[in-house]
Amino acid sequence: MVDLNQTTARIVAVYRERYELSYKQKTLYGKLKTSVYYGREAEPFPTVGDFVDILEVEGGDCQIIKTLPRSTYFTRLDPDPGGHREQAIAANFDTVFIMQSLNQNFNLRRIERYLTFAKQSGATAVIVLTKADLIDSPDKWIDEVECIAVGTRVHAISIKTGLGLDEINKHLKPGETCVFLGSSGVGKSSLLNYLMGEDVMLVKEIREEDAKGRHTTTHRQMFKLPCGAYIIDTPGMRQLGMWACSNDAAGNDSIDDPALNIFADIEALFDMCRFSDCEHQSEPGCAVKKAIENSELDPGRWESYQKLKREALYTQNRNEAIRKKSERNQHIAVWSRKRRKNVW
Ligand code: GDP
Ligand code: ZN
Which residue ranges have their beta carbon within 6 Å of ligand 1? Predict the structure, then answer.
């Protein structure tokens, strides 16, 4: 290995303080350079899928000195209440596979939620309904999902019978990166093992009656498939908490964004309310209330829309508060430095 040679590598796994990196098909390990990542204008902590600049160090872990700009990423807020940084969970992916199984886990509201996250990230979403062997025919389910996910490809698959797996393969292009988004037990590891052609992930046997399973912890990982595509499957992706999803390029971070088109049916109703500032609660002439009464709008879908709006607002407010706090800290730091130097 060359001493102090700067190159770009990709993060394939994150351990506590150590990162596994891939560089020209080689596996390296690295640690963050403290002055860069914990300084005043700290670099964002790298996550799986990130491209980072590294300095190779002879005989030891390399030093990670920069997180390169991300094309897409998922973040969640730091679970530590005192924490004030967003945590990225996966970065630089092209396609999000939203996975849900055709058993008790099936839930249109959850698909809407995942779809919102996926589209906000700027990546292409593909919906995968797993375990199709457990039901008679997936067509009815596919239709239902297509109704709430207009314009998104929906596939039903079964690892047991091989149904739909060719369709999945068509989405996997050499050099592109995909992420799996779905609750524990929906079959992410099983699909990954199938695509890899070998068992790289432990499949947790679960009882289909109540979808309960053993919880196994896995490390965040990124896998290179034989076809040349990459799959990110991280435990972080399994926890759907309060998420912010961003797309650097487009800066889309609102579920109101018309380009996302997920709740276009609901948003079209807003224009039909009698009052332009209608809050859709108990105002007369509210088109939303009317649509629910006439069974044109599913109350569950309306509930889901409102919940996502509240979360988006909460995240936005919290991010704003974090930004202000860090600006204030910077001002204080500059002020005390100046004072130390007797500039004032
Ligand atoms: P993960 O938690 O999303 O990674 O899910 P796993 O891949 O570990 O699978 C959870 C359970 O679902 C295991 O018992 C698998 O054997 C089962 N499973 C996965 N795919 C299929 C499928 O296509 N059909 C059926 N019937 N079971 C499946
Ligand atoms: Zn209204």
Answer: 130-131, 133-134, 158-160, 182, 184-190, 203-206
Each residue's pLDDT tens digit, 277-335: 889 988 999 999 999 999 989 998 898 888 888 877 776 677 677 667 766 666 666 66
What number of other Cβ atoms are within 10 A of residue 77's Cβ?
Answer: 20
Q: Is 111 helix (H, G, I), strand (E, B) or coil?
A: helix
Q: Which of 204, 217, 238 to mutate to test the pocket of ligand 1 (most atoms within 8 A of CB)?
A: 204
User: Would you state the structure tokens that stand for residue 29, as one six-digit string?
Assistant: 């390990």
CA of 6 to the centre of ligand 1 (A): 42
Domain coverage including residue 24: 8-68
CATH of the domain at 42: 2.40.50.140
The model's pTM is 0.73
What type of residue sits at position 92? Answer: N
Looking at the fold, whether 35 and 129 belong to one and the same domain comes out as: no
Three-state secondary-structure class, residue 97: strand
Question: For 72-92, how does the pLDDT look when each residue is reduced to its tens digit (9 = 90+)?
Answer: 998 875 555 555 566 788 999
Q: Is the pLDDT of residue 257 over 60?
A: no
CA–CA separation, 77 and 303 (whole Å): 23
**C-alpha span between 327 and 323 (Å, rounded):** 6
